Amino acid sequence: MGRQFFVGGNFKMNGTIKSIQDIIHQLNDAKLDPNTEVVIAPPALYILLAREHLRKGIEVAAQNVFDKPNGAFTGEISAEQLKDSGITWTLTGHSERRVIMGEQDSFIASKTQAALNGGLGVILAIGTGKVATTEQAQEVHAEIRKWLSSTISQEASDKTRIIYGGSVSEKNCKDLAKQSDIDGFLVGGASLKPAFVDIINARS
Question: What is the DSSP letter of 45?
Answer without folding.
Answer: G
